[in-house]
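Quick one from the shared queue. A colleague (R.T.) flagged Arylsulfatase as missing a structural entry in our internal table.

Convert sequence to structure tokens.
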Amino acid sequence: MTALKGLLAACVTSLLCTASASAADTARSEPPNVILIMSDDQGWGDVGFNGNQRIQTPNLDSMASSGVRFDRFYAAAPLCSPTRGSCLTGRYPFRFGILAAHTSGMRVGEFTIAEMLKGRGYATGFFGKWHIGWVDPAEVAPRGHYSPPSHHGFGEVFATTSAVPTWDPCVTPEGWDSWGGEAGKPWKGGFPYLHNGQKATEHLSGDDSRVIMDRVIPFIEQHKEGPFFATVWFHAPHEPVVAGEEYKKLYAKSGAARQNYYGCITAMDEQVGRLRSKLRELGIEKDTVLFFCSDNGPADKLAKKGVASAGPFRGHKHTMYEGGLLVPACAEWPGVIKAGSSTDVRCSTVDYFPTIANIVGYSFSKSRSRPIDGIDLMPVIEGGIASRDRDLFFGFRRLHQGTDGKAIISGDFKLLKEANKDGAVRMYDLRSDPGEEQDLAQSMPDKFREMSEKLEALEASCLLSRDGADYSY
């Protein structure tokens, strides 16, 4: 077991970003613009391109059909903050130390996509829900710490620390009786958005996805000559999930919960369409690679009520099953990514960093060398890779609540430790049992032991990173 730990740790540590041959390498002489779009708590089954016939997502569907659809795309964790960090660093959450929401902030020792691209002359902008550190230095809260996007390579910043209502984001919605404030009063007592360090107080009413896109569009227009990097992380459809009347009317035959949830997603989709139209209006769509995914599976309550959907998969947000980890995802790059492409290779949010690094020709210097857990997605998109060449590791931990969920996928087998006080360990063959119905832990003891050792080794490697092995002093 010790030897296996050392071997796996060495393999992971050697995964530096080196250029790989792909169409992206020869498609253009100048580096492309890059846009990362992410929704919040949108289930695998909550888009038309994954088969949902009720929720209207024509722009995301068009994006998927114009590029590539990822049929097995995983968030690095079954909840928001850990996944967000993985998108920017290419590393597992257990490496950079954000194991749950509101428990930490991104360490400045981490190296993000924004820092990488800023160093290569990119204009960088962040827009939307940050949730990997406070954005307001005056904020006082019992958990987490101040670590805004501007500390991690972003020049233009329009951000909230965490969730806001998806309609009228500065006002607590009617009927809301949980965290955030009293109905009709300011959300969390004030204005949640900061724009370049100052509280934003104007043009904040109506659809929150539009409020965000109203700041993205000017950034793109200003930097249309490129290159630019925009990270657009919507709040939709995270609770409090509210839709405007015009969007609820689209689902008039549905109940109130569905009207708000479906309408909120359609409103967000409209802003994705607005973004794609702007790229075409400016004539830069072929110079821009655009990625979309959700940060985790559908919210617990809405999934259990049948409002939100993980598709055919078991589980939801906060669970280590496929429904908590698999998310809708697609990418578009006209002229480079073949329209109508799809892949069932297991991909992940940790893959964004190495993919973008290879597209722009970045490799780590010796002084910045560190474990990168993702793979370059371009060979996958182009069909040159039929299966992932390394394991995937997932984790979610709040020990004080008895939560310590972990999972590993190696080949077609998945070992998971449930994220609850029971902490049962189960094993599934995802090829023959994608719904995770038949636990093989008892019937395949040798495979169970092998998978357990791999999981232990990956967690040990992550612990070394978390304890500072990857940072210079």
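The radius of gyration is 21 Å.
Residues 1-21 have pLDDT under 50 and may be disordered.
Added to the table.
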